[in-house]
Amino acid sequence: MNGPVSLPQPQFAGALPSEFEALCPPPQLLPGENIDHYQAIQSAIFRDLNPRSAVEWLLAIYIAELSWEMQRYRILRHRLLSTYRQKAIEMTLRRVDLTGIAPEFQDVAELYTINNALDWQLDGAAALDIEARLRSYGFDQHAISMEVYVQAREILVLFDSLLNGAQLRRLMLLKESSNIRRSKLSKLSDIGGRTNRPGYNYLSTERSY
Length: 209
Fold this sequence. Notes:
Helices cover 68% and strands 0% of the residues. It is an all-alpha fold.
């Protein structure tokens, strides 16, 4: 009887092997993005998936890129909301300061409101005063946040679409990677099972009696 066949053990995939470097072009980062952060995410994905074949490495590379894209979209969405917060402050100030203003003073009051909103963004002390005044009229941070989402609702739909699309593609690639791994393990198990059968000959597929 032949001895059992040892199945190959997974190897730590900490870095892209040199023979597969052509599969991984340099990352296309936006200004302000950190290459070290990108490589940390990429290494974590590689370590988790532990690819071995060229196809598995290619899938892992795509999954890492999609994971970075999703992080990018979240950061940009957060910064977008911060930008729209100034608009929300401006809109709320209009409700407070422009109510009851005579038509001949509307333009001056409008300019004053815009400048106040800019001061809120640039001057910390002014921001505290403005927020305190708005709270006295019932506009707390939650009310301002609600105004932020009202102002940014259309662009937020775009970011949701980008995030959902990237997540869907990543899930599909993860499923494909898992299917490839299961298929390989199944084939290796079949080979191991055949070689353990009594009378199995490495040079022939027929049984000996």
